[in-house]
C-alpha cells in the first residue's frame, strides 16, 4: 500500500534562479536543487531580439496601415510549402504584406519571400530547442540515487522505484521563470 503526499514549491524572491529544498516525506528525505536555465534564457533572448528586430523593421502594410506586432516566423512558415504559382495567386489576393515586400515588383517579392522562408526554416529548430530547455531544471538526491529532469506537469519520476516516486503538478501547462510558486510535488511513498 502507498500514501500520497503533496509539497508546495516556494522561493523567497522572484529573482531567485537557484532554490534548494530538503523535503521530508513520511520518514524519507529528498534533497532538491532547482535551477532556472539562465544561460539558455540569455541566448534565447538574443534570438528573440533578432526576430523582433526583423518584425519591427518591416511592418505589415495593409492599405497604408502598419502593423508592427506580428509573428515573423509564423507569417513566413505558413508560406513554406507554396509553389511560385501558389505564391503568385496568394499575392494576387492582396494580403497584408511586410512593407519591404509590398513596395517591390513581383519578381523581387517572390525572391524576398523565398529568402525569408529559408531564414525562418533555419530559425525554427533553434527557437524550438530553446523552448524545450528554457525551464526550471532539478537535481534530486534520495537514498544515494540522483534523479534529474525538468519541472513539467505530468509524468512520474522514479516510477519504477518500489519506495518512492514523484511528479510535478500545476494548473499551468508550462512553468516559466516566475511560475515556481505555482507548482507542487506529489509524492507516492510505499508504506511497507
Describe the structure.
- With 192 residues, the chain is α+β, with helices and mostly antiparallel strands.
- It has 2 domains: 91 residues, no CATH class; 93 residues, no CATH class.
- 35% of the residues lie in helices and 30% in strands.
- The strands form 3 sheets. It has a 4-stranded antiparallel β-sheet, with no helix packed on it. It has a 3-stranded antiparallel β-sheet with strand order 1-10-9, with no helix packed on it. A 3-stranded antiparallel β-sheet has the order 5-4-6.
- Helix 1 runs antiparallel to helix 5.
- The relative contact order is 0.20.
Class based on secondary structure composition and strand pairing? alpha+beta
Elements, N to C (H/E):
EEEHEEHHEHHEEEE
Q: Give the low-confidence spans.
A: none
Rg, nearest Å? 24 Å
Number of strands: 10
With strands numbered from the N-terminus, the spatial order across the biggest sheet is 2-3-7-8
Count of domains: 2
**Largest sheet properties:** 4 strands, antiparallel
Amino acid at each position: 500500500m502507498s500514501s500520497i503526499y503533496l509539497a508546495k514549491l516556494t522561493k523567497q524572491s522572484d529573482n531567485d534562479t537557484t532554490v534548494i529544498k530538503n523535503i521530508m516525506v513520511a520518514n524519507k528525505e529528498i534533497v532538491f536543487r532547482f535551477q532556472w536555465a539562465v544561460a539558455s534564457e540569455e541566448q534565447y533572448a538574443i534570438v528573440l531580439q533578432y526576430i523582433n528586430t526583423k518584425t519591427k523593421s518591416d511592418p505589415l502594410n495593409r492599405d497604408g496601415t502598419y502593423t508592427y506586432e506580428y509573428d515573423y516566423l509564423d507569417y513566413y512558415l505558413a508560406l513554406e510549402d507554396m509553389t511560385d504559382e501558389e505564391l503568385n495567386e496568394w499575392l494576387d489576393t492582396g494580403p497584408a504584406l511586410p512593407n519591404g515586400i509590398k513596395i517591390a515588383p513581383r519578381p523581387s517579392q517572390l525572391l524576398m519571400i523565398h529568402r525569408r522562408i529559408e531564414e525562418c526554416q533555419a530559425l525554427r529548430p533553434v527557437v524550438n530547442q530553446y523552448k524545450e530547455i528554457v525551464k526550471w531544471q532539478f537535481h534530486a538526491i534520495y537514498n544515494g540515487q540522483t534523479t534529474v529532469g525538468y519541472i513539467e506537469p505530468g509524468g512520474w519520476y522514479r516510477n519504477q522505484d518500489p519506495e518512492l516516486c514523484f511528479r510535478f503538478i500545476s494548473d499551468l501547462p508550462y512553468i516559466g521563470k516566475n511560475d515556481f510558486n505555482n507548482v507542487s510535488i506529489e509524492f507516492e511513498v510505499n508504506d511497507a
